[in-house]
Amino acid sequence: MNTNYDDFEHPEVTVDLVIFTVNEEKLKALLIKRAEMPYANIWSIPGGFLKKDESLDNAAIRVMKEKTGVKEVYLEQLYTFGRPERDPRMRVITVTYFALIPWTSLIPPESSKVTDLAWLAVDELPELAFDHREILEYATQRLRTKASYSNIVYGLLPAHFRLSDLQNIYEIIIARDLDKRNFRKRMLATGLLQETGRKEITGAHRPAMLYKFKKREFVLLD
Amino acid sequence: MNTNYDDFEHPEVTVDLVIFTVNEEKLKALLIKRAEMPYANIWSIPGGFLKKDESLDNAAIRVMKEKTGVKEVYLEQLYTFGRPERDPRMRVITVTYFALIPWTSLIPPESSKVTDLAWLAVDELPELAFDHREILEYATQRLRTKASYSNIVYGLLPAHFRLSDLQNIYEIIIARDLDKRNFRKRMLATGLLQETGRKEITGAHRPAMLYKFKKREFVLLD
DNA sequence: CCAAAAGTGTTATTGATACACCCATGC
DNA sequence: GCATGGGTGTATCAATAACACTTTTGG
Predict the structure, then answer these.
(1) Does residue B154 fall inside a structural domain?
(2) What is the DSSP-derived secondary structure letter of residue B206?
(3) Which of A199, A215, B39, B60 is the most exposed place for a label (fewest CB within 10 A)?
(4) Which residue is nearest to the C1' sugar atom of D5, using CA?
């Protein structure tokens, strides 16, 4: 390491989050309308400055708590962006995370009447502040890729769900229809699912078996 | 974003690299023996402070140039580590990269007579400074995973190589023997390889066809 | 002619895909 | 009794895994 500190300056470090959910048959991300310059009134992804003595993961957890009412979340570091001109005010390095939360855990759903927080569909995005579009597209890509070979979609589902809910989430994320019989066969064959015996009682049709994932890795908030 | 700067401090940002090569049938990483406290005389991975107006990628490229004589390198951002106590002197966030270079591109092989730079086998590591063991293990894991579903091992091979060289590299990385016929069949079936017609002329045996990868993604240094 | 690495095919198994009808329930 | 979503099996195809001998060369 170089110890000639004169050649260097300390950049700011922020942690920004791409928080996904699925609702109304769409993959959506939580966005915040900025109040101040630069990019006043432009949508941005939630974030905050890294605090002294706070780990990166804890900063991400803090931002999650500040912006959503959820109790647990699937959270994973995504990528670190640091183009010198990405913030016009000063040098800012941002460590980004992506998070998955089930729509059903949002309290109240479509939280309160704040107009500066919104869940927007990732394929119908408005202009975004800074390099947040690049970040969001990178996160979306990662989610799509990872969903195809792992079971992280549990982060988008409530604890108990029907196989048709699970299939629905997959179809929305990978933007392709799946065959019902093959899907169910494959999912049950993984051994990751467990019947929970109970049956839900919604509409005028046969009630479905509810399942849960045997293992889920969440970060607990509080 | 929070604009109350009093709660925050600017951490240092460094870029650290795990530089891999394969030599003597082993996966090795480039390490540097630290001269100064803390961790004086302890091995560490190469790195440096991020400079003003320098992108993260460019910082990684700069460190590569400083420590190796190679002209091109496979380079990919790995993960960002930021535990508050990871450096006893001050708060340091490190953005890590992993790099792959072919042993044959090192000039001179086992560069010069410096004793503070060494290529050490990743499964026989000494004590490492800071959290560098964690970083190196994370990088090794990522290399192993990625090698199993992509063709990034081209970064460890010279431009022209024999199929047996390629198989050898894979076997070293995934630490498992592969069937020669299946391996060759599968590799040729990908369509990523191209015969280069020429035949090498080493020992007392049938000369091998040399191949090259049709596409390789390198960062060029200089 | 011997040593050393290059090169080459077939069979069995496993996983992925395509595809259509009956079931349980509420109204 | 009808509308709604729940639930099930088989046949084909593609990919993977197991397995052993002949060829070309230098010395």
Answers:
(1) no
(2) P
(3) A215
(4) A205
Q: Do residue B49 and residue A1 have CB atoms under 8 angstroms apart?
A: yes
Q: How far apart, in whole angstroms, are the C-alpha atoms of residue A74 and residue A217?
A: 7
In whole angstroms, what is the distance from residue B198 CA to residue B195 CA? 8
User: Are the beta carbons of B56 and A82 separated by less than 8 Å?
Assistant: yes
Same domain, A87 and A170: no
Q: Domain holding A123: CATH number?
A: 3.90.79.10
pLDDT for the residue A222: 76
Residues 6+ apart with CB under 8 A from A170: A147, A153, A178, A183
Same domain, B80 and B14: yes
Mean pLDDT score across all residues of chain B: 91
Q: Which of residues 170-199 of B touch strand C (CB under 7 A)?
A: 180-182, 184-185
Q: Which residue of A15, A51, A80, A95 is the best one to mutate when testing the B interface, meaning the one whose CB has the most B CBs within 10 A?
A: A80
Q: Which nucleotide is nearest to A208 (CA to C1')?
A: D6
B129 and B72 together in one domain: yes
Note the pLDDT of residue A4: 43
Neighbouring C-beta atoms of residue A193, cutoff 10 Å? 19
Domain co-membership, B55 together with B113: yes
Residue B222 lies in a domain: no
Show the domain range for B120.
5-149
Minimal CA separation from B58 to chain A, in Å:
10
pLDDT in tens, A61-119: 999 999 998 999 999 999 999 999 999 999 999 999 999 999 998 865 454 556 799 99
